[in-house]
Amino acid sequence: MAGQTEVLIVGAGPVGLTLANELARYGVAFRIVDQAAQRTDKSKALVLWSRTLELFDRAGYVDTFLAAGMKGHGAQITTGDETIAQISLDAIDSPYPYALMIPQSETERILEERLAKHGVTVERSVTLERFSEREGGFDAVLRKASGETETVPARWLAGCDGAHSTVRHGLGLAFEGTTEPSDWYLADGHISGLEPQDLLHIFWHKDGILAFFPIVGGRWRVVADVGPAQGEGRRPDPTLEDVQALMTARGSKAVITDPYWLASFRINERKVAHYGRGRAFLAGDAAHVHSPAGGQGMNTGMQDAFNLAWKLALVIRGICKPALLDSYSIERSAVGDMVLRNASRMTEAAVMRNPIAQGLRNAVARFALGFPQLQHHAANTLAEVDIAYPDSPLTAGKSHGGKGRKAGDRWRGSLPADDSTPRFIAIGPAEAVSGLQARFPQLIQAVPAKEAVDAGALSLVRPDGYVGFAGAASDGEAAAAYLQALAAQ
Questions:
Q1: pLDDT per residue as tens digits for the range 280-302
Q2: In the sheet that 70-72 helps form, which strands lie side by side, from edge to edge?
Q3: Is domain 5-46+103-177+271-344 classified as CATH 3.40.50.1100?
C-alpha cells in the first residue's frame, strides 16, 4: 500500500489539470491519474471565456494561454441569404473582452507543462478500478497498464473523470437527463472563403444549423446538425466530401481541406443533483454534460476546479473548518443548472425545422439583438462574468458601493496578486481592514481602500474573486463574525 496523499485527482483533462495546478500552487500534496496513455491531440473544447481567463490571471499564467490562442471578437448569424444579427464581444465587462479560441489539445499542453514546473507528473495509463470509504478518507485501487494494482490511501477524492466517471458511479450518484434525438457532424480542418476570420459564423439554414468556429492558423471547427437520430447508435463519421456538401447546401461558399478530425456525435444533457458526498467531489463532465452551444462546458468545469481548490486548500491546511466545503456543491450545482438551461435553449433555437417557427425565431433574434443592451447582456452571459453566488452559505451582507460590490457578485475592481496561500481580501478603511488581518492573519489580506467608492464600505473578497461579505465601513464586527464562522480556530 502506498503512502497516504491528501488528494487523489482522477482524470487529467482540462478540469483535473486545473485543479492539480491550483493545489500545487497552494502547496497541497496530491496525485493525478488518467487512464489515457497521453493527453488529447483533438481540438475538442475550443473556447476559453473571459471569466476563466480572469481566474488564470489570478493564478499567474494567463499569458501562456493568450500566446497560444486567437481572439474571437464576436459572431454573425445569417440564413445563408441574409444577415440576422451581428454580436460583438468587445464590450464584455472584463479585462479579457473576447472569446479566446484555442484547441483543447493546447489547453491541456499548457496545463500539463505548468504542472511539471511544480515537479508533478500526470500518472498515465492508470485506471481507478474501485475505491472504498474509511474513516478520514478513502482507499483507492489503481490499475496500471502492466496489470499491476496499487492501493492508494487518500484523505480526499476528486472525480474529474468525464461523463462516464468511475468516481460518480462509485458514489452511486444519479446522472439524470436525456440524450437529444438528433445527429450532428463535426469537422476540424483548414477553411478558405470565410471572412472575417475573428468571428464565429452561424448559418440558421432552413435545413438546420451550420456553425464555423475559428481556431488558429487558418483552421476552423465546423458543426452541423444532420437531422433526427437514426437507430440506437450515432451515424458513421462523415467524410470530407460529406462535410463540404453539407456546407454548400446550407449556403456557405467556404471550402474545407486537410481535415484534422471528422466525427459524428449526439448531445447529452445530464447532471448530478449533488457534486459529491463527504470527502469525495465531482467536477466538470463527471458532474454535468450539455450541448456545446455557447462553448461553456469546459469553462464551467474549470471554474468548478477553481472553486473547489481554494476551499480544499484552506481546509487541508487547517485554516478553515471542513464545513467550508459544503458550499462547493451548492454554488457550482446552481451554476451547472443555469449553463445546462441556457445551452439547451440555444440548441432548441438552432435546430428548429418548422418554417413558421424558424421565421419567428429569426424575427425575434433580429429585433432583440438589435439592442446594444441585450447584446451586452448576451455577451456577458456567454463569457460567464455574470455568474454570482447570491444564495451561497458564504454570502453575507448588503451592497455598499454599487455594481460589483454586492455580496455574492464577482468583484469588479482590481485585486492584489494572488500568492501561495488562498486568502480573503479585506477592502475598506485602513483601520478596519488592518484590524481584521491582525485577528485572522492566515485568512485575511488587508487592502486599504484606494477608490472613493470603497472608502465607506467594508468588503471581504474570496480567493476566487467573489464578494463573500459586503457591509458598511462600521461593520467590522459583522465581518469578524463572518470570518470566525469559517476559521478552524
A1: 999 999 999 998 888 899 999 99
A2: 47-48, 99-101, 70-72
A3: no
